[in-house]
Amino acid sequence: MGVSFAAEKAEAERLRAVFAEAGAQPLDCAIMQSAETLLDLYGEDIRARAYVTHDPSRGEMMLRPDFTVPVVEMHMSDGAEPARYTYAGEVFRRQEEHPERPSEYYQVGYEVFDRGDQAKLDAEVFGLFAEVLKPVNLRPVTGDIGILTAAVAGLQTSQERRDALLRHIWRPRRFRALLDRFSGKTPVPATRAAMLAQGAPMATAGPVIGLRSEREIETRIAALRADAAQPALSRGQVELIDAVLAVRETCSFALEHLRDIAVDMPALLPALETFERRCDALSARGVDVAELDFEASYGRSSMEYYDGFAFGFVCESRPDLPPIATGGRYDALTRRLGGGQEIPAVGGVIRPGILLEVAK
Asked: What keywords appear on the UniProt entry (predicted)?
């Protein structure tokens, strides 16, 4: 991208010093991370984005795809409360869809683990990033995955279908495919329909081949039959989800628009109260929410951390570049990695190489 690795490293150290001055404790994480943890979190999809290797004693490993997971693991094992951390180091991502982008680059982060006022903490992190990036002409954009999960949780369908949609919120294409199937827009594949029509498909299936046992296969068939018996998701319900996904306005107008949608989908109301409190906290920090962009779908294509507030800073004159900074709230991740414990958490990362590229 026209920036030397030495310059990128120096900028990363400068940014980490800024975050440390803001009260964050500097830390580092091993470059080699357990593949088991990441695969458990994200499934086999992570292989398409990370570099996987094998260690004779530690098993399957991955070159660090980011810092958030190891930082959460470290904090949940022995971190104090409240805590603020900063870090700077290399991460490794495969770039099959964008071969022109580097697969090894620096990342600088600021993470907050705190049980205090969550709206104020969201505003703290966003405000700090906005201040750090102020010298560069970037467009900030915000979102809230919690609003979308609330919309899905409020759908009038089976819990199994709601769970399936929630699992794929961070995979927009799969989410849409499920929505189309559950609403009857996409017919059941002919092979599946034929299988479900059989009284006892395992009786004529021949020997079991593969890792699944016969009982597991029968359980899966029973789940498919139960799903096929569910009534189709109504057109009105799908239109409400589409209306939420389509919201792209400034925060003030987005809140009004979403309140209008909530008249027909009251499950949104608690998430909208959270959104409103965050807007108030941002305003108290001097952020003009009447000019701050909000996109209901923002954050869905990132690593599957964010379950609430999400934000990014992009360079509109360079649409070929990824966001210079991204961040958000990831409370659910601390539950997954906390061994029975949890703590609210919010943070973000900056890519210093792209920041230098844009600043030139």
From this structure: Glycosyltransferase, Transferase
